[in-house]
Write a structure and sequence with these properties.
Blueprint (H helix, E strand, L loop, with lengths): L1 H6 L8 E3 L22 H10 L1 H30 L6 H18 L5 E9 L15 E8 L17 H26 L1
Parallel strand pairs: 1-2, 2-3
Helix pairs in contact: 2-3
Length: 186
Amino acid sequence: MAQQLLRQGESAALVVQFTAELRFHRKVPAPLKPKPPASPPSKRLATLLKNPGRALYRLSAVRIVREWEKFAPTFYRIWFKLGLRIPPRMRTLYIWRILINAERNYVPKAYPGLVVMFHGSDYEDDPNLGWDGLAERIEHHIIGASSQDARRDLMKEPWVGQTARELCDRIVRACDATEFKHEKVA
């Protein structure tokens, strides 16, 4: 949105991101995170023998999700052409799919200003969450004592109060700075 404002000759008083890790089109590659070691075949066999129903359920759930991923775009197109709304139980998955597609298709451009980031503390290996070189300045607000790796985590207890206070303070400072600039021009 800030980029769209710039193209129209306007500016944003404040650009804020909530745990907005850039997954695609990074200037700096994402740090490699070690994969957890796979269970040895003997352990997987023991799990299967111990609880075959649960093991089969997990295998079938994975297969169903993979098949749904192939069929989902067609389903949504048909559903919308019929004038129907996405059923409530399917909305989260639908919105997640839309957001992932938007992230894949968005190619970020350098922003000539400050970007304020609110996120958890578990990003030491990628402190700017992939936005290196894409903002003139980045200001961090660490919320909580561990990884809040979903935007909604910052908006729920126990962290919502801290998020609100720090965001409010940041908005006030941005408004004060903007008013000062406008007074100087006038």
